[in-house]
């Protein structure tokens, strides 16, 4: 999505993306007809409306920019690693429009005296997860945003998720999980990376 424009030294808020609810309703009616269903039967009459309303939440990340998450920071005298793990997320696979969901574990090394609120980390995940996505890209986007917008000197991201496009269709492997990671900056140091992975893996003991 486009970066905010600058004017007279100020950062301008980007134009908001909005869901075209009429378009969603029409598309869902056509979809139901195309799979051989009757969108006028009692059980489906309100389905286009329900899907249109649900899209506002499911794809809410399309109307948000990651820099908005980091509108403030806390002056804390630390530059040690901060780790937030077990952040549940839900997203939609852009290839099949089926859900994938799981947990994100996020560690970062802040600039000294520039710590972001813990809830901001979870909100950043939501900004990117609530868009049509692939897990690999989602992992990279979160890492890059922490560096670019939060000023993190080091970042480690580990995402583990189940994909309905693997469980409902195709190979139909119901227990399969996909794990992706991204590492930036000081987290590439072997000792720091090992410490972060130990803390992440401790959540599974």
Task: Write a structural description.
The strands form 2 sheets. A 5-stranded mixed beta sheet has the order 5-3-4-6-7, with helices on both faces. The chain has a two-stranded antiparallel ribbon with strand order 1-2. 36% of the residues lie in helices and 23% in strands. The chain is elongated, with a radius of gyration of 20 Å. The longest helix is centred in the C-terminal third of the chain and has 16 residues, at 135-150. The protein has helices at residues 21-34, 47-58, 66-69, 118-129, 135-150, 164-167, 190-201; strands spanning 6-7, 10-11, 82-93, 99-109, 132-133, 154-163, 178-185. It contains 7 helices and 7 strands. The protein is of the alpha+beta class and 205 residues long.
What does the average pLDDT come to? 89
Let me know the number of strands: 7
Percentage of residues assigned to helices: 25-40%
Beta-strand fraction estimate = 15-25%
Shape: elongated
